[in-house]
Structures are given as C-alpha cells and as structure tokens.
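Course assignment 3, question 2. Fill in each field.
Student: A.L.
Task: Predict the tertiary structure for the chain below.
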Amino acid sequence: MRGENRKAHRVQIEHSHPVNLMGVDGTWRRSCVLLDISDTGARLGVEGPVNVLQAREFFLLLSSTGLAFRRCELIWIDGEQVGVRFVAKAPKKKARRENPNSEGSPPIS
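Answer field:
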C-alpha cells in the first residue's frame, strides 16, 4: 500500500463519492471514485482503462457541474487506482502601491 511518503494528512472517504477526470483540452473524460484526499493530492478508483492518463496532467472535477475542480498531475498507477498531486497555481503578483510617507517623499503636514 502506498502512502508512507505522504506529507499532508489524508481524509479517507467512507461513502462512494463519484468524480471525473477530464483532459486539459477537454477531449476525454473518465468516471472515478474519490477514495481519499488531502490538500496536496488524492487517491482515485478509475472506472475503465487508464491509458488516457498518459497525458500526465488533467482536471479532477469534484462536482457534477464541473465548477469545483483541481488541476492534477499523475503520480502513480496501481491497477484501477491512481494517485494524483494537485498542481498549485503560481501566486499573482500584487501591484505595489506607493506610500506617500515613504522615504524619498516629503512628509505631509
């Protein structure tokens, strides 16, 4: 059983929770069952062939409407189970606001 290298605590799913995997380009979709999940990844039971997962990166659709999703990368395949890691978005840079009282600016009287 995998899991000895996990850095984040996983929550075991007691009831079957259907989810879907979808290609980044939207050309394929695969039904799955969420087995456990953490902040950094998940373990899924995949229904049908796993050959489409050779794409390495795809979306995990957590809701039936597709509005709740995570971008993932494939970490391992073991029979009908797969392990995925969530791909973190690069943080957006905030525009730096000038402070009128910063050095180089005359104090406001």
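Instructor remarks: The longest strand covers residues 11-23. The chain has a mean pLDDT of 80.
Grade: pending
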